[in-house]
Write a structure and sequence with these properties.
The structure is a homodimer. Chain A is an alpha/beta fold. The first copy, chain A, contains 16 helices and 16 strands.
């Protein structure tokens, strides 16, 4: 079967299965999820063995260490995978909720019903845990999913797919509700992102390069997450303790996450007071500082920042620092150089806090809290399929609700329009 | 200035103005809207004269009658335009609303704030009333807008733009908050739909051909409205009076609107009873009926329906009719042939009503009410920028809320992530 025909079949089957998933009740979906988790636990050895095959091939092909690391599935990883699927089972079902139902002068009652999106395509790197995770979230939200993981994880992904299908069958749900693409042909992605009739949304998970490429070629709406160039702005009324605690956590808790702060802005009035202890802390942790000329005059260890540094997601122990006039320049700088992901202000001034909240055009905007909180679990979503830096549909962490939309429902009793 | 450079400048200025619009308070936005309405009333003669220039040129160019009709702006049309803008002023401001604010175990409070989308591009045919209408909705929702109307309406659109700018200036809002493209160069559209950096969403208003073309070429998310192939399904427990009233209203109240019913499905058990009086009514109004073989055996006047007829948006006194087994086949037929716009069931059976509501995958799903109710005013949105048949972001009638999104806001007191 050629790849175009194969993908058309996958899409067609997904659309068909999505109808059954949309009407599946919570019990069926939760039973399937629990059966999948049980099967994953039961077949832990098989999954680890399948992963070994992938790892051997990847090593032979000279895959780099960081990618091998993400590809690796340990027995502990398998247990976490099963637990994650069970956690999704325990979340409330978003589907079917009717809200805002009100009578209109015509006599009809108008409201909104939360419904699945339909068919969701997930494109991700060679990380087997994402396969179970994404399948579980799409299943619980009543969607059919088409999963296309990095080809290096093919054996393990196929093994997970078999267990997912076993769980779906236990609950009487169609196997095509979760389809894991069984070919490493790269053309599959090109078809997936252009099958408008049978794919309702694409969720890309992976590096900036991957997402930019998909974005340029996709004909299907995408819940994208490009990059996280997050800022912490220390306002002129910032509490010094909160400032240093938040900068430390936002920058140094983890260097490789998208909600890590990459840039520090400081109001001129307090820079000379606030920056030295923060610089000492950062320096002590081995964080390279790249600052504006004024910053250099306060922090001896800092190097000069280039224009590009302010737009950079370092994903490393590096931070850009800029001294600004105050909140106006801070907001302007963030909206210009930021990536609309997550930005925080440290301030004791209510008006400044509220202006920052309203005017910073980012998916998450925070007052006196670490940017590291931008996360589905921390926000109470239970789990996330990704973090959107798009502005329509869902912004920020996307949980089950972000995989649904609301349609209008009208209850009448024979009313007609005048 | 070449067109690429011109459009880049327009986009850049719109982005800049969108920052001021996002922080504008309700009073400023409402003052601007009222000033625009007053200016439109004051300059009614000038608008009609500008429209005359457009009409003369359009007639000379041999524009067809239906398009000339939509292009025409009468004194009464000007009054309605001013009234429409005032109505938007009187709607509640959706921007800034914070909802679902709750404490998390970490100590932070997490909620969502409703914010403008940013810059909205509207592409529409030569209908001057849309210019005022779209400008008002985007302004009230705190967005900057770039309006590209059909070139035949250029003079009138420019005259309206001048009055909009006068109103913005009165309220101290930036003129670039509403930009009406001042060139008839078709390349402007190509730039508008690909300027991802400076345009957040495109709302196309117009024929199916226009929208399909934009959809194929757009690199910016689109709130699209392709077509309205709406169904009325008469279930086997349908009340005959409601059935005939709803079919009459849904099909014959207006033939050219997107929420008009184009297809009638009837449960086999009641077809012989329900169809004859409905056929007599439709026939009396000159509606051509195209039916399945079973329909033909009941309705003598009907002609055979082709497969294409079931997928057709006739926008004319024509209806397709199909006799189905019952609700299963009805739902399947609608999801297959429909356009996900608006579909209604007529039934006295609760379970059937709820299944239809849940399983029909359309932006509006109705029980015992006419499809003609699918409309921003009827739903209580006050006004609509369009009706979306997309599944992400906003479905169905899109009012002020659909021109906004929700970002996450976090209130902390120095919390950091553990």
């Amino acid at each position: 079967m050629d790849i175009a025909h194969y993908m058309q079949t996958v899409g067609h089957n997904a659309r068909h299965a999505s109808r059954a998933m949309a009407r599946a009740d919570s019990n069926a979906k939760n039973s399937a999820l629990r059966a999948i988790a049980a099967a994953i636990r039961r077949d832990a050895d098989g999954l680890v063995a399948a992963n070994q095959r992938d790892l051997n091939a990847a090593r032979a092909a000279g895959l780099e260490a960081a990618l091998l690391d993400r590809l690796t599935l340990t027995p502990k990883g398998v247990a976490a995978m099963a637990e994650g699927v069970e956690q999704v089972a325990s979340l409330p079902d978003p589907v079917g909720e009717i809200s805002d139902l009100k009578f209109r002068p015509s006599g009809i009652q108008v409201g909104r019903m939360r419904v699945p999106l339909g068919v969701i395509g997930i494109i991700y790197e060679a990380r087997p845990n994402v396969t179970a995770d994404a399948a579980a979230l799409c299943l619980k939200s009543g969607n059919a999913s088409i999963l296309r993981g990095g080809s290096e994880a093919l054996h393990c992904n196929q093994a997970i797919a078999a267990l997912v299908h076993e769980g779906l069958a236990c609950a009487g749900l169609p196997a095509d509700a979760v389809q894991v693409i069984g070919t490493t042909d790269r053309a599959a992605v090109g078809h997936l992102i252009t099958m408008r009739d049978n794919v309702d949304v694409i969720v890309p998970r992976g590096g900036k390069g991957l997402i930019a490429r998909l974005l340029a070629e996709s004909r299907v709406p995408m819940i994208q997450h490009l990059d996280g160039n997050c800022h912490v702005y220390l306002d002129d009324t910032a509490d010094p303790d909160k400032a240093s605690r938040i900068v430390e956590n936002a920058k140094t808790q983890r260097y490789g996450t998208c909600n890590t702060a990459e840039s520090l802005l400081v109001a001129r009035a307090v820079a000379a007071n606030l920056l030295p202890p923060i610089a000492a802390m950062l320096s002590g942790k081995g964080v390279e500082m790249r600052g504006c000329p004024e910053t250099l005059s306060i922090i001896a260890q800092a190097r000069p920042a280039s224009e590009e540094d302010y737009a950079m997601e370092f994903l490393a122990p590096v931070i850009s620092i800029k001294i600004v006039d105050g909140i106006n320049e801070a907001i302007e700088h963030i909206n210009r150089y930021g990536s609309h992901h997550t930005d925080a202000i440290v301030t004791e001034n209510h008006a400044a806090a509220m202006r920052f909240l309203r005017e910073v055009d980012s998916a998450s905007v925070m007052i006196n809290a670490s940017t590291r909180f931008a996360d589905g679990f921390e926000y109470g979503l239970g789990a996330e399929i990704g973090i959107s830096t798009d502005k329509i549909h869902a912004r920020g962490p996307v949980g089950l609700e972000g995989l649904t939309s609301q349609k209008w429902v009208v209850f009448g009793n024979g009313e007609v329009r005048a």
